[in-house]
Each structure stands twice: as C-alpha cells, then as structure tokens.
C-alpha cells in the first residue's frame, strides 16, 4: 500500500515544483530578452549612421564640430564625450570625500545617532526626483555661480555640483556597507596598539576597504554619466569643449534630450543622436565591467 | 501567498486582454495602422451639417510652438462634440512630421515645411494646412541698452564678430547668446528670415530648446540675447525692433516685419472626416479671431503676403 | 601635529561634513516646500492644467502618476519576484548564472533616457502602442525590474537556513518551501524595498518623456469603462505624469503662474516621496515587530 500512496503524494509536489521552475525561468527569460532587445535596437539605430549614412566612426568619436544641419553636415561627438566625462568625474570627486565622511560618521563615530538620522537623510536624497534637482539647480546653483564666479553660471561646474548631490547616496550606501563589513578585530587591534581613531581610519580602514569604495565611486560615476534631465537644465548645451568650468558645455545625455524631438526618425541627424545613445550604452557596459573587475580584485 | 500571486496574475491577464481588445477597438489613433480608421465607420453622415454627431479620437503631435493653440482649440472642439477625444502632444516638429508620415498620429504639427525635414518623397505624401502664422522677435536682457538691431548687426552677433554690447551702442556687457539647438524649427525660421544665413554653434553660447527656459535665461543673464515667438513675450525681457520695424501682429501681416513662419498641420493624404472637421474648425473664424490672437499668433487670413517653401514672397 | 590633534581635527571635519549633508537636504526640501506649499490647495490637486491662463492644476497628472505606478507594480512584482527567486534558489552556480547576473547589473545601470528611447522605438512605434500608459508602464518595468530582483534576492538571503532546510526535510517541494515558508519571512524586507522602489518609479521622468507622453486627454472621472478614450482607466491613452509635467512647465510654461505651478507640483512630488520613504520604514519596522515579536 505504501507504493501507490507515495506516488500519489509525489505527483502534486512534482507538478508544483515544475510550475515554480517554469514560472521563475520565464521571468528570467523576460529579463534577458529585455536587455538583449535594448542593446539590439539602440545598436541598430546607432550603427545605421555609419552604415546607411556613411559617417565615419573615427570622425564621430574624435571630431570637434557638431553641426548636423550645417552644409556639409559634420558629426563630431568629442565635445559631448568630454562633457559627460568631466561632469561625472568632477561630481565623483566632490561626492566621494563627502560620502566617505558620511559613512565614517555613521559607522565609526556615532553609529546610533548616525543610523537614526543620517541614514534616512541619505535615503531621502536618493528619492528626490531628478527633475526637481534640475529645477533647483537652475534656480539656485546657476545664479549663484553666475554672481560669484566669472562666467555664465551654467557649465560643467553647475552640472557637477547637481550631480554630486544626486550620486552622494549611492557612494555613501556602498561605503557604509563596506565599512560595516570590516572585521572588528582589525580595528580593535589597531586601538590596542595605541592608535587614535583617525589613524586607524586613515591607515587601516581606508586601505582595506578601498576596493569596495572604488566600486561605489565607479557606480556613482556611472549614474552621473547616465543622468539626463537634471544635467540638461544647467549645462548650457553648447556643442563645444568649454574653456572653463563655467562655460556652456554639453554631455551625451543633454544632446540627446535637447534634439531628439526636433529631428525626424530616419534622418541623418536623428541617426547621429542614436549613435550618441549607443556610445552612452557602451560606456554603461564599460562601467559594469570595471565594477566587476574591482570586485574580483577585492576578493583576492 | 499563492492566492496573492494568483490574484496578481489574474489582474495582469485582464490588463493584457484589455490590451488586445484595445488594439481592435482602436480608441487611440496611434494604435491603428491606417490613419483613416481613427474615426470609426459607425459615425457621421455628411459633415456639412454641424448638428451631426462626430465621434472618435485624433492624435496631433509635433511642434511645441503650436501646442498651446491646438490644445486650446481642441478643448473647444471637444466641448462642442462630446463624442470626440483629441490628444495633443509636443515632441518637436521633427517628431510630428515623422509620426504623421509613419501613420502613428493623425495630424503632425510643424513649424517648418515638411520638405525641410523629411525626404522629398515622404513630404510629397503629406497635405499641408496652414493654420496660423507665428512671428518671432529678438529679445534681450532689459539692461542691455539697445532698442533696435539691423540684419547685419544680428549677423555679427550670431557669428561672433561682435562680443560686447557697447560696440553696438549699448551698455558695457558681454554678449551672451541664447540659441536653440541646430535642429530646432524656431531657429531655422530665425536664421532664414532674420539673419539670412545659418549661424554656427559658437563656443560659449547657451542652447536651450524650450521657449520658457530661453525666456528665463534671457531675463536673468546680463547681456543675453535670444529669440522668441511673439506669444512668449512678457515684461521680464526686452523686445528689439528688427531693421527699425517693431515686432507686432500688424507689421507681420502687412509684410514689413519679415521674421515669421507658418504653423503647419500636416495630414497624410487628405484628412479623414474627423480630422477635416477639426482642421476646418481650426481655420474657422471662431478660432482664428479669438484663440489665435489671444495666444499671440496671427490668423492666416490676416496675412497680406504669402510665402512658399523657398522663401519667395507673393502679395 | 600630534596624533591626538590630528584625530580631533579629522573628527571635526567628518562631523561637519555629515552636518553639511543634513543641511543640504534640509535646504533642498525647505526650498521646494516653502516655494510650493503655499500654492497647493484641493483645487490645485484636482483641476486640469491650463495652457495659458492662471489657475491650472495637476489633477490628471497626479492621477496618472498613481495609476502608472499601480500598473507598473502589477507587472513588475510578479516578474521581479519570479526572477529573484530563480536567481537565489534555482540558479546553478555556473557561468550561465554569472552572465545572467551580469545582465541584471547592466540592466540596472542603463540610463533611464535610453530606456525611454528604447520604449519610443519599440513600444510606441514598433508595437504601435502609441504614447500610452501601457508603453510607459512597460518602460518603467524595464527600469524597475533589476531593483525588484535585487530586493527579492536580498530578502530571501535573509531567511535562516534552518527554516528552509526544516521545510524541505518535512517533504515540502522546493517551490512550496519558497512560497509558503521563505517568502513570508522575507516579506518585510521585500515589502520595504518595493515601497522604496515605488518611490523611485513615482519620480521618474526621463523614461516617460518619450513613452507615456507629455499630454493627458480630458478625463471624465465618472467614466469607468476602460475602453473609452475619456476614461481615466484606459491604459492606452497618453498620460503625462507629475514629474513629466514639472519638466514641461519648467521648459515651456506659457501660463503666467507657471513658476508657482511648477513649485507646487514639485512640492507635491517631494511630499509623495517623503510619504513613500517614511511609509516603507514604518511598515518594515511594524512587520519586523510582528514577525519577530516574542509571541
């Protein structure tokens, strides 16, 4: 009697199990399908500039002049690439020390107080929508820069400041996790040897968690690189490499946002914008790979 | 947990089924391949009689300069025809032309002639309806100290030859150009009719696509110069005369002020019944003499000169 | 400089930086709320926007934001849960899984404007959904999915192994273990994370500019037929959300009170985000107490 009973009881379990497996597998398949199609579509549109319109790849990547409506039409995307990199790197340069200080505060100096007050503050900053940041940037940061520094107020500096506040939560969260994961023994040993807290942080904690911190910084840079709306409002959008931090500049994202609606799909100008999007997407891959590489290194 | 998952899946299924039903039912003009079917066959006899019930939906996309007018007119039209739903979107003249050409929208709003953005064969399929005229003026920061600019002076500014207002008789301020992106229809109009040539994107110029931002920047940045449609002018900025002619509706109408452009509403082929009714409404006195003027445009009928795509003027 | 002095200075710097960050947030919130709160009224929250006249409101946009959020969550939660369960429970530790992880990471880093462009190309044009809530919801799903996967994985990882093993030892199938034993335990974490993700989705604009569109048709709130073009429930109508509306007003505001409307709308958006954040925290604490309370 035991045999048939077992079989009976096994059947619904098996069916359940299969339902579960297939369902979750389908979900993952959808995910993969999504990313593949994004890459495919953006790439096909972006590459058509080179294959259909016969624009030279090297010219696009290194050219200094962007004039899709000029005669002849010139497509040099270097100003945008330069703009994207400078704003992101500058934003990270501002946000990294700030984020590091915040996470040290939360983990080392005042854990209770920090967790209770600073943590929610950081999460709130992360939740504020980017349009609001852009709006505040245009209303507060740009006039401030215009009055205080020589220049137009808009430009890479304004973009970097706005972006730095936007990526601060990213860097802080990752830094906090890294610091909290440090084995206590390390710090206690240092204190036992008579080091002050700052010495411990500076000589032991920082070097040990450096890979994780780098990961956070790179992710912050990636986020800043991809930000569109907030940057477009404060950067000025001149398709040139600026001569100062306070001169109108352009990034890949701001160029796309600015002109996508004005161009007709299928025209050269439109395809060129898709090429910019392609460059943007490729950079995303590069950032992800860098992060992975860093993580692998830290495991050693 | 299972019940919740089941419930969620049922809801998802319902939405998906609604989606399929939707695509057949065709309430959004964009979801149907053929623009003609945006007005269901079940409606209206001859559209001559205004009392006939119109129903269906229209999608008009494109120029943001034309948006306020079309939106306002559509509201009035919908008030008079309860069964009609008209959606108006911005997105830029280029998007508008592409979408009407590809059949995703019923009407494409554009600041420029179709031939200027689309390939010749695609543009040939579109039918132009010129619903209004928009005038454009050069605007500056109030403290610049200049009232009038000649064509040559404007060219000098926008090509970077002149960099300080004092060289033009104004205050000692660096000229800050607030331009549009090179693909903008507004810029194309300004360059064609005010400058007479294309201007390059100069180092240090600021580019913004939207008129609101341009107005804000011109009003706040000392030494700034930009250009706006007449409907956007207000007290925060100073309007300049062009070649001594003031930018007013009358001057545009009689042809003395040359910086203007038609506002086009394109349809692919002849418009459908509903679209035609709406376009006729746009051209009717009710809209032309009220909303068009109220919003700062100029009625097409008021124009005493005409201009074609090549710029030739006929009286 | 002695080590002690260096320590004091460093501590001072760090504390002041932390204080600076709090000040920045306070200033940010204060700026928005002060400028905008005065403009918010019931009328503002329910009436339709005006193109060139005063007195426009954000009613349809607010509704669109909420409705879009609901639609997106309906699609994302089952998908995200499923994918997360797969990644944490069913995936064998091999190269394929590694590449899937890579895919998820890449998807979470894709800039939202690219998602929006992709939506324009595929959902609006290719599939012909047009500018619609549906296209917007799908675009936001793409954006939100990696987050949900990560949240689910995190939640499931927090379940004590003993619970899982005990359940399996008792003869329950793996799927049943997951659904009846592990998920309920992971629920507080997953729920908190989902609400925070919802807050992010609520404020998203770049992905929606080209998919849900920048206009909203005249909505008849008494019409609940999802097939009618006037019904607010119709998922195939263009639906400008609050964030997109702020963008639009800031760019093209023709109404004389455009500045106030933008400020008011920003304030509403920020308050909504605050509510999401606090709600998530509170819910997480409440559930945690319920599940781990000494019963």
Structural class of chain B: alpha/beta
- The overall pLDDT of chain C, averaged over residues, is 80
Q: Report the oligomer.
A: heterotrimer
Largest sheet of chain C: none
The total of helices of chain B stands at 10
Question: How many strand elements of chain C?
Answer: 0
Shape of chain C: globular
Strand content of chain B: 15-25%
The 3D shape of chain B can be described as elongated
Rounded Rg of chain B: 23 Å
Q: pLDDT under 50 segments of chain C (min length 5)?
A: none
Uncertain ranges of chain B: 17-51
Q: Tell me the series of helices and strands of chain B, N- to C-terminal.
A: HEHEHEHEEHEHEHEEEHEHHEEE
Number of strands of chain B: 14
What does this structure look like?
The complex is a heterotrimer of chains A (300), B (315) and C (295). Chain A is an all-alpha fold and 300 residues long. Chain A contains eleven helices and two strands; from the N terminus they run H-H-E-E-H-H-H-H-H-H-H-H-H. Chain A starts with a helix and ends with a helix. The mean pLDDT of chain A is 83. Chain B is α/β, with parallel strands linked by helices and 315 residues long. The N and C termini of chain B lie far apart (76 Å). Chains A and C meet through helix 1, helix 3, helix 4, helix 5 and helix 8 of A and helix 1, helix 3, helix 4, helix 5 and helix 6 of C. Chain A: This is Phosphate transport system permease protein.
